[in-house]
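Handout, section B. The chain below has 125 residues.
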Amino acid sequence: MRPTPVALGLVRLSTRLLPAGELRQRYRWELYGDLSALDRTHQLTYASGVLSTAWQLRRELTQEIDPMNDTTTVRTPLLCRLNLRHHWHYVTNPEDGHRSRVCSRCGKDDPRLGNAGNPAAMGGW
């Protein structure tokens, strides 16, 4: 479907905020293609959404990537944090040879066993 003139104008305005050159033209053609796939009732909504996020897109495209500052933090899965589900497996300590159960997702020790190891191998019975 052919995009409406208002939607085309909003997309053209939003792509003017992007850095000049091939990058701007590529985004403009991609957004025009997205508009062509939508019906008339959704074109204006899509184009206004593109315009509202144009500054953020410009900021993301123009900032330099610094690998020293771009570190990812490892997060504990939600089910592990809530103690609803863990993926327990046995791990053998190479120093003393004791086995313990540890969650493979979050690294938490099994509270029933802790680092005490395999209860059947503890002896004393």
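Note. The helical segments are 5-16, 22-37, 40-52, 54-62, 78-81. Compare this with the example in section A.
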